[in-house]
Fold this protein.
Amino acid sequence: MNTLTDISLIDWSRAQFALTAIYHWIFVPLTLGLALIIALMETIYYRTGREEWKKTTRFWMKLFGINFAIGVATGLILEFEFGTNWSNYSWFVGDIFGAPLAIEGIVAFFMESTFIAVMFFGWEKVSKRFHLASTWLTGIGATLSAWWILVANAWMQNPVGMVFNPDTARNEMADFLAVATSPMAVNKFFHSVMSGWVLGALFVTGVSCWFLWRRQDKAFALSSIRVAGWTGLVASVLVAWTGDGSGYQVAQKQPMKLAAMEALYDGTDQAGLVAFGILNPKKKQADDGVNPFLFRMEIPDMLSLLAERRIPAFVPGINDLLQGGYALKDGTRALSAEEKIERGRKAIAAFADYRKASTERNEADMKNARKVLQENMPYFGYGYIKNAEELVPNVPLTFYMFRVMVMLGGYFILFFSTLLFLSHKRDLTRMRWIQMVAMLSVPLGYLAGQAGWVVAECGRQPWSIQDMLPTGVAVSRLDAGSVQTTFFIFLLLFSVMLTAEVRIMLKAIKEGPEK
Amino acid sequence: MKQTLKHIWHFYTEGFRAMTWGRVLWLIILLKLFILFFVLRLFFFPDFLKEKAGEGQQQKYVGNELIRRAR
């Protein structure tokens, strides 16, 4: 792909970033989910004035605090990595990322640090109304932080609202609103935040069922289950809905990712959605003629409907995307990978010509080069691609992780419906099986969230910025050994911190609510 | 104004003093921030471009990288 001969540098840099992001995403969704649930619980306390709701709120608030304290600032490591491991990328996107991340930092610091203090210290010192407002504002602050981070991520999936400046070799913000409210960002935000609500609900129901299992604090556990159960059910349905919105955006902006999610090699007008499938491990290349599936169960026409909102509608497969030639919505013909690569090379050559002309202060050549660059800029990243096959992400990983996420999403709807039905119609305290199911469902919430991010991030390879910058060009020219070293330091550090969290969390859970 | 500031000061100091679980958590936060900023940032995560290209030369360095890596 590029002159970097050391492929292990790219792989270790990616592994290190993935490790940090995965670790960070252990804490974020639980913070978002618990913030909502404790706010709902405190609202009930505020409206009923019943002391047991105050104790219930305080218990979950304590667990929220532990998760928040261990998770806080883990995202900073990602920013360190941008500056060291991904310096070309950081420079290339600098101005676009700068604004959202700065806003995120300010919002996170002022909103969370102010109101979280009132939330923990203010029970007996401020009015009930002010305390409740602080609890909601803490959650809103955390959610707004997530907005800006997800705006930055969405921009990488679908770069909009910017202009590439060949003088500075970086993208500059041209339309802040387009960046902040792109449909990709909006869908990503709601889908990710609501998945956090689901995790929070799974956590609360799981821990509450542990109390039922131990036959202690039953009233507290049952009331917690009702609040979290309804939160989880509503959130699970909303996650499915926003997931559909995200899928539509992927179909429009990242068709290769969608094709990988479905292992769709040859497009069709009536594309079915693979409900269940086993991929053929002998399939090595897009055009090798090997059947991609050993087995599959399909929902007819569903992929066309989800991707284009109508039937029949053509959904391009991996081969179509590589070979081009099919009709696009605007009536034009889709370019082949080779044509895009050619235009990418033109863009990079024009960029080089511009810089040369700029050094020589040759205005006429600068103008010409800038024109060619602008015409071909949407394909800039393709200029680094040596072989069209490089444009295909890891299909098995994307395909299976997508199914893990979707199946677990469906399971959560079923789980919360069943739990709520039983909690209203039966005696949950005697039903050991559902208690066990609830406890075992907690890790599944984490798994679903991580699987979703694997689909989003691995499914968009080879791009770090869609169509503009491949991962191999984004990476800094570092020694692979040093990246490897920091990877293992992180692994150790994260393991220690995670162990600390689990131990503190378990100790706090065992202590139970105030008596 | 002075009175308000005094109230806020007391609010925080009393809050911190009354902490039980919070003490351990603050210790973890401070330890983590120390490791992040005084170990990782200083020794393992330098500003690559500043070191490699020098102050003010980042755009030239990245521009060259973007061109060279296409060859």
